[in-house]
Structure formats: C-alpha cells, structure tokens
Automatic annotation (TrEMBL):
Residues 6-330 form the Isopropylmalate dehydrogenase-like domain. It holds the Pfam family Iso_dh. The lineage of its organism: Bacteria, Bacillati, Bacillota, Clostridia, Eubacteriales. It comes from the Bacteria. Its cofactor is Mn(2+); Mg(2+). SUPFAM superfamilies: Isocitrate/Isopropylmalate dehydrogenase-like (SSF53659). It comes from Clostridium acidisoli DSM 12555. NCBIfam families: mito_nad_idh (TIGR00175). This is Isocitrate dehydrogenase (NAD+). Belongs to the isocitrate and isopropylmalate dehydrogenases family.
C-alpha cells in the first residue's frame, strides 16, 4: 500500500473548482494516494463567515502542512485583505517559487526558457504598512530585514543546487534604495560565498526587465524582494505563454501552499472550458515537495506530450477541448 498524504484542498472562486478537480483526477491517476480535506474560502463564504478566509481553513492547513489552492477573488474596495497575502503572512510562507519554462506546443516568442523566479514573500512594500497624510498624500513603508533576506537567499541557492542549476542572479535597486535594497543585496552576496559551485551575479531590476525580454535563456534562478518578484514573475509568465501555463508555490519552514497564479475568471466559470494546466503543474510542484518525484515526472512528461501533439488543447491555447477533455488526455498519456 502506498503512503497516504493528508492535503488541504481549497477549490476557490470562479473556475477554481473546475481546475482543482482536474488536478485531483490527474494526481489520482498517477497513483498517489491522497486524502483531500476540502475547505471553502473566498467570495462564496463571506456572507456566512464575514471573511473570505475563515478559521477552519487556517486550521486545516496548519494540521495538514500542505495545501493545493484554486484562485480566490479579493473583493475590491470592501476592506478584505488578500487571502493570498494573509496565508503567506500567517504561515510565514517566505518563498514564492515560480518556474518559467517553455513547452513545445504552446505559442511563445521563445523556445528555450527554463528559469525559476524566487520571490521573498513576507515583507518589502507588501508588509502593508501605509497610511494617509492628510487628503493629498500617502506613505507606504518598505521593510527589508537581514533575516528574511538571508532565508530567501539560502532557499534560492539550495534550489539551484538541488535542481542542478548553475547560476543565481540577485535582482535589486540598491543603486537608489541603498539601505533597504542594499541590505538585501549584501545579504545575498554573503550567502553566495557558501555556494562556491554556483555562479552569482546581481542585476538592477530595470535592467533585468530588459534582459529577461532580450535573452531569457541566460538566466537560471532569480532571487529578489517581494515587489520586484510580483512584477517579474508575471513578466516571466508572458515569456512562455501567459499565466495559464505557469505554476506557483508558497513555501515556508514546514508548511507549503501550491496554487496557479491566474485569476478566478468568473466570466467562464461553469462553462467547462477553463485551462487546468497551471493548476496541474502546481500539483506537480507539490508532488516534488512531498517526495513523489516519480509521479511528478510522469505527469510532467504526459503534459509535454499533450501540448506537443496539440489535438486536445483548451481554447486559450488555440484548441477547442474542454477542461475535462484536456484532463482526460493527460491521464491517457500517463498510462
């Protein structure tokens, strides 16, 4: 009997239930034995609980230590915090990991991108320390600490080492923000000395934006503070086909939440045409995290075959297949 894993499943809003269901079916077909604890969060629970993130969701994640999450809508202008930000801060999920990889069969301007963006997830301007100054000004405070910078630097170098990657690039704006980004850069530079086998360089964030567009194949692992990571990770997704084809993981000391990074797409919810690829790829990241590497490789290879053959692609990828048809084709390739 294979090992059983207890994992929290948060279907989310909009197309979330459809794409997470697809991922569950693929994991099951790959032979991984998961006991899913399904908990609801997001817009649908606000009326009942007064929050998009009830305590039972937090309790489930704390108990199981691993979660797979669908997209959740943050209501605009209603005073609710982003569920994603709240989860990251509650469980100190300090590393946001976004693999950026080209697949044959997905239209993009590049055919050889394979990099990982590692984003510090808990501080910077996203610490949420801001206030108004009268009616005509506002102030937001950027927090960078040595502790958080050191943790994310070690994470990035360990990831590079474990995945056989050759280079880590620190992205910053230390030429202007000499104290905050300067602290980040100096800390990463110090950590790099413990990984002599891995090349280290640093690039200013605006130059990095240009270089990512010009020569993305030159980069391996990029590590950066929160705001730059948020921006460049979406830019990276654009290099390889968009948010619908890119997975994501939020990883802490002993808790991890894996999620696709696209929105909840309420306009197509329930129509059966949502692309589940990003969520399935996020579940592949999750399987690697729990040590189910063989199943992860099988799913990844099956996805590559489906994309390259191109006969069962969803509408956004240029095909006409439904969510179910795409998922069934991936499962077929597993066998």
């Amino acid at each position: 009997m294979s090992k059983e894993y207890n994992i929290t499943l948060i279907p989310g809003d909009g197309i979330g239930p459809e794409v997470t269901e697809a991922a569950v079916h693929v994991i099951e077909a790959a032979g991984v034995n998961v006991n899913w604890e399904v908990v609801e969060a997001g817009e649908k629970v606000i009326e009942k609980y007064g929050t998009p993130l009830p305590d039972y969701v937090l309790n489930s994640i704390e108990k199981n230590k691993i979660a797979l999450k669908g997209p959740i809508t943050t209501p605009v202008g209603k005073g609710f915090r982003s569920v994603n930000v709240a989860l990251r801060q509650k469980f100190n999920l300090y590393a946001n990991v976004r693999p950026i990889k080209t697949y044959k069969g997905i239209k993009s301007r590049y055919d050889n991108v394979d990099l990982v963006i590692v984003r510090e997830n808990t501080e910077d301007l996203y610490a949420g320390i801001e206030h108004k100054i009268g009616d005509y000004a506002a102030e937001s405070i950027k927090i960078i600490t040595k502790d958080a910078s050191e943790k994310i630097a070690k994470f990035a170098f360990d990831l590079a080492k474990n995945e056989g990657r050759k280079k880590v690039t620190a992205v910053h704006k230390a030429n202007i923000m000499k104290f905050s980004d300067g602290l980040f850069l100096n800390t990463v530079r110090e950590v790099s000395k413990n990984y002599e086998e891995i090349e280290f360089e640093d690039v200013i964030v605006d130059a990095m934006s240009m270089k990512l567009v010009q020569t993305p194949e030159n980069y391996d692992v990029l590590v950066m503070p929160n705001l730059y990571g948020d921006i460049l990770s979406d830019m990276g997704a654009g290099l390889v086909g968009g948010l619908g084809v890119v997975p994501g993981g939020n990883i802490g000391k002993d808790i991890a939440v894996f999620e696709s990074v696209h929105g909840s797409a309420p306009d197509i919810a329930g129509k059966g045409i949502a692309n589940p690829l990003a969520t399935i790829l996020s579940s592949v990241m999750m399987l690697r995290y729990i040590g189910e590497n063989e199943a992860a490789e099988k799913i990844d290879a099956a996805i590559a075959k489906v994309l390259e053959e191109g006969s069962k692609l969803t509408v956004d990828l240029g095909g006409s297949a439904s969510t179910k048809e795409f998922t069934e084709e991936v499962i077929k390739k597993l066998k």
